[in-house]
Amino acid sequence: KKKFYITGYPKKKIPSIKNNKAKVLYLLDLDLNLEKTIFFLKKINKNKKIELFLKLKPQHKMDSRWINFCKRENIKYFEKESLDYINKIHKFDYFIATISTALLEATLYKAIPIKLMTSNDFADDMIEDKIVLKAYNFKDVRRIIKNNNKKNLKSFFIKVWGKKKYQAQNIKKILLKKF
């Protein structure tokens, strides 16, 4: 029988910037339907109250079609940059993805995680565990942003990360007790 020890969540330095527009980071997953995703992203990008950014998984090279799309639509995109780095600069309000584990990290950055529902949902447990908001289409995303669901942030955070902040001495105590 294996035992897990919770040592706390990592403290992130988050800039206290008040955004005039809702800053949305769309996390590109692998094997996305390019046409459907582009159609969805164009709708988000047309909304004057939203500033859209794209992030590709760091272990994969960005497809030139995505780069061309971003340039055409005037969307900032990130290939290799870490979430820590880009969030320090832009302070995102929302993370949107279909199956990315970065949705779990969203609350560390005080961002609301929105899971886009698709036909091949591998991460439905995030919905069942009520740690993300779900959206089926642009209308749902717009409603979530309009309602400014920041009230859910603390609940999501505690469900994912618990209440204990990371402290190195906690790990030392656990290890000394066991070994």
The separation of the N and C termini measures 17 Å
Summarize model confidence as the mean pLDDT: 80
- What is the number of helical segments per DSSP (H or I, 4+ residues)? 8
Strand content: 15-25%
Describe the strand arrangement of the main beta sheet, using strand numbers.
3-2-1-4-5-6
Question: Helical residue percent?
Answer: 25-40%
- The poorly predicted ranges are none
Overall geometry: globular
**What would you call the structural class?**
alpha/beta
Sheet with the most strands? 6 strands, parallel
Rg is 18 Å
- Per DSSP E runs of 2 or more residues, the count of β-strands stands at 6
Q: Helix-strand pattern, N to C?
A: EHEHEHEHEHEHHH
Question: What are the main properties of this structure?
Answer:
about 180 residues, alpha/beta, 8 helices
State the gist of this model.
The protein is of the alpha/beta class and 179 residues long. Helices cover 39% and strands 16% of the residues.
Characterization of this structure:
By secondary structure, the chain is of the alpha/beta class. The protein contains 8 helices and 6 strands; from the N terminus they run βαβαβαβαβαβααα. The relative contact order is 0.17.
